[in-house]
From TrEMBL, chains A, C, E:
Gene3D superfamilies: Mitochondrial import inner membrane translocase subunit tim13 like domains (1.10.287.810). This is Mitochondrial import inner membrane translocase subunit. It is found in: Mitochondrion inner membrane. One of its GO terms (molecular function) is metal ion binding.
Length: 94, 83, 94, 83, 94, 83
């Protein structure tokens, strides 16, 4: 999640309220990062780990998880760029 | 001290609305990301790179998801442009 | 989500607390509406859009999304009615 | 000013419980709605109307979901009637 | 969810803050229990109920739901135990 | 009254971080539980007991999930050990 995504037209705020608003955005970003972490683990585990004969992660599973996570992060960045473009397009149309 | 004056309830509502709006956008982005990953990305993970086919699929998927968001928004009468 | 769903036996509240409670319910309804909007988009997109040869929504996909959303909303209203009946039945049994 | 008196912590807890209760009901309703849509509604969306078969399936699905909620509630020892 | 799961190194807190922290943990546990209840119902309903010729739960469906819920709860307890062991192992490694 | 003094904003942030950390752990536990149930447990529910095969699958599943959490954590640069 990118800070610019949350943008938009905010009413004029006092110094104190600005601090509060920015604190709130930071808090949302922290929560979102933690959720993303959880859902990335869930997805890559589900897609890559299917046998339970061993207690530890097998080499093949490990490299699958790595590629899965990297691929998802690249995907997520690309989506973020496209999403930002559409958001800006919508903003200029207004 | 201005934080605890008479209008604090109204101010709470403004902050609360802004918070919901942001939560909404974050959720939209997350659903979009997961949905387009499911639609476009090969799940055997032989590569850690996105190939050309995946990349163009992702771009179109985001664009179409955006259109669907607008379309459903119109039906719901919110009139919010992808928001 | 219908306000009546949230009903139930509330203890006697002061005027001030009533305002606060009702504000809270409004806030939950707003959050719920936004989530519903998001999940409706996700569902109808997933069910209706499957080809990515074009950047814009095709006519056929568009009408599929419309019918999907309308159908889901009708479904949701029906579930709401049945759910309210069961809630009331449970309340009278108590 | 009564809002910030000694008992404010207890009052917070009461409001917090009420909030959780409501969130619970909203989540129950949403899960019920999505589950019964998956069980009962044809996904090709040839029509925007629910047909008779879908409607009666939905009614029964809601009723059964309610029973399952009660049953699981008993097992969990909550004793809450569909709540 | 087990209270010990939430543990970790907390900074020194005043009496008042301790009360608040513990209230927060209680609140999270209540929310988590309610969510668990909802997701257990959803899972067992989805896995056990598939015919809609009747309005009331059939004997067979009812016993399926009972076994499903009991099995899930036992599973959840076992996962909790293993999870706690791993958490403790990680804590001692630090 | 110490609750509303000058540093209340900082304190809010500390509590808010602790809250997020806990929410994160609860979510991790819930996802782990649901994922391992899906991977290991037979869904016809002929028994209400977990059999030996299911039990050992669950133990290994939890262990592997933990490893994946650490691995992904390293990739994300958080360095948090399963946390």
């Amino acid at each position: 999640m990118d800070k610019s995504m949350l943008g938009g037209d905010m009413p004029q705020l006092s110094e104190e309220d600005n601090v509060r608003m920015s604190t709130m955005i930071d808090q949302l970003q922290i929560r979102d990062s933690l959720r993303m972490y959880n859902s990335l683990v869930e997805r890559c585990f589900t897609d890559c780990v299917d046998t339970f004969k061993h207690k530890s992660l097998q080499k093949q599973e490990e490299s699958c998880v790595r590629r899965c996570a990297e691929k998802f992060l690249k995907h997520s960045m690309r989506v973020g760029m496209r999403f930002a473009e559409l958001n800006q397009g919508a903003a200029t149309q207004d | 001290a201005s934080n605890d004056t008479a209008s604090s309830l109204e101010k709470e509502q403004i902050f609360s609305m802004a918070e919901k709006e942001m939560e909404y956008r974050v959720e939209l982005f997350n659903k979009l990301t997961h949905t387009c990953f499911n639609k476009c990305v090969e799940k055997k993970y032989k590569e850690s790179e996105l190939n050309m086919g995946e990349n163009s699929c992702i771009d179109r998927c985001v664009s179409k998801y955006w259109h669907v968001t607008n379309l459903v928004g119109q039906l719901l009468g919110s009139g919010r442009p992808g928001m």
